[in-house]
Amino acid sequence: MTSDESATLKPMELLEILSGYPFLEKYDLALFYEKDGIVTRLGTVSPLCGVLARNLVCIEKCEPSYEKAVKLALGKQKPMVFSCRAGLMNFAVPYQVGDGFRYCFVGGGVRNPTLDLFLMEKLAKSDKIDGFALLESLERVPTATSQEVKDTAMEVSRLLAGLVPDSIQARLLEKNVEMFRTVRGILAHMEGISTPEDLMGLLSETLGILFDIPRVAIGITNGLGKDVQLRGLIGMVKNLGKCTEAQLANLFPYGDSGPVLVPEKQMGEHFPSVVAERALCLPITSGDQLLGLLAVFDDDLKYRDTLLVGMITDRVAAKLLQFRVEEAHRLEASLAGKFVSVLSTLSSAENRRDLYLSILETAADLLQASSWSLMLIDDNGKNLRIESVMGMSLQLARSMSARVGRGVAGKVAESGEPLLVKDIEQDSRVRIPNRSRFKTKSFICIPLRVKGSVIGVLNLSDKRNGGIFTEADLDLLITVARHACVVLERTEFSEKAAQLEEITLADPLTGLFNRRFLEQRLDEELSRCGRQQQNVTILLVDL
């Protein structure tokens, strides 16, 4: 192949073609290039030692032997066979194109069929590793004789020399078509997935198997205004910390702006818990809505693969939105059923104290709040006292009071207007430090009205999922409070009627039944005896 013909070909594409040949299946392949005496590896920086690298025998300690072999092969312009410090056999095949760089294809990760026990013992002692674990790893390494490795190197050299642009493009087209078909099948499979966990599992398998990406993380917003939780998908710990939705928006300032490369000097800002030289970040979007990001660390995706991964993340975003819509519908259906139960529960309360507790428990359950309180205005209309509370001691709470017109609850009681706060430290209407007993900074405070007058306030805070309260939560709470106040007004009327009834039938000083009660009972007994044709006897006892 001439230099001009080769100039339009990408060596990484040749590496991909070589990896498809069956005779190279047992080898781990890599591509190095040299310019100005410096040898650098392209693409995925994964070890050429296969499973042996897990014992920390190789990796960085083998790099000098690779660099030396690459320089030697490029200098002599012929294939070379060499061994690493662990005794694994490798080959290096030079390849020249017209871009000013000199390339070298390296294959490795095979051992001689006969194990060198002396070398194993030496490695175990020098590297202070478990000799039995090393033996177990070496037994899983593919085998090849030195002559087989030499023949493989020569075959690779002949392949590279014999490939012409037309045949390369044909093989690339065939591979691209195969990749697109596979991705299309994966996208179709995603349509049948019913849970976010299964969706993340399929995404992880796809990125690892189809694209051979060694380290991937994902972060998805939850629509609750919380921080975005970063989780490892491949080759990383599950919990990678958090980033704010504002940071996510700054990373992709124009929404679906395509991949963004984060250099090493900015890694600490975006991924403080990740040790990497760079990160390729792809936005996960649906329409103009940014739902999260996919981060690929220390790997260079080909243009084709970047497009395909983008197609996959777009479908992931669509499925995530679908899950959220379905969850919202389930919540609405659940709320409708709960609301009917709420009305029944409120109506069955026998007295105001039971009703107060029912109001609080109902509101907290509907809005998933873990802390709540009900404060009532005293008879003089100047102070608020806590009637019921969750999240602190009731005895301690009842020893506290607030002035109407002061503090958050006092101002709501005075104005009669509900208050929704998403961040108590940032909202200009309150802007006070959050108390340590509260887990979140969001809360709702609404007035309770009976006969048009505010009788108290209802406070809810600390959503169980750690999110913020929304306008929908406020509307729902106001609706519940409106029905509760109607029941409260009816309960208050019933209690007063019962009190009046008791006053008319008993002496206010002694509490004993009076003449009116006697006359009422006489009428009842006379009527009963008349119906049953019985006699009536009356005894008067004077004490």
How would you portray this structure in words?
The chain is an alpha+beta fold and about 550 residues long. It has 4 domains: about 5-165; about 175-325, Beta-Lactamase (2-Layer Sandwich); about 350-500, GAF domain (Beta-Lactamase); about 510-543, no CATH class. It is built from 16 helices and 17 strands. The strands form 3 sheets. A 6-stranded antiparallel sheet has the order 8-7-6-11-10-9. Strands 14-13-12-17-16-15 form a 6-stranded antiparallel sheet, with helices on both faces. Strand 1 and strand 2 (about 40) form a beta hairpin. Helix 8 (about 195-210) runs antiparallel to helix 11 (about 305-345), helix 11 runs antiparallel to helix 12 (about 350-365) and helix 11 (about 305-345) runs parallel beside helix 15. The longest helix is centred in the middle third of the chain and has 45 residues, at about 305-345. The radius of gyration is 39 Å and the shape is elongated. The N and C termini lie far apart (about 130 Å). Residues about 1-10 and about 50-55 have low confidence and may be disordered.
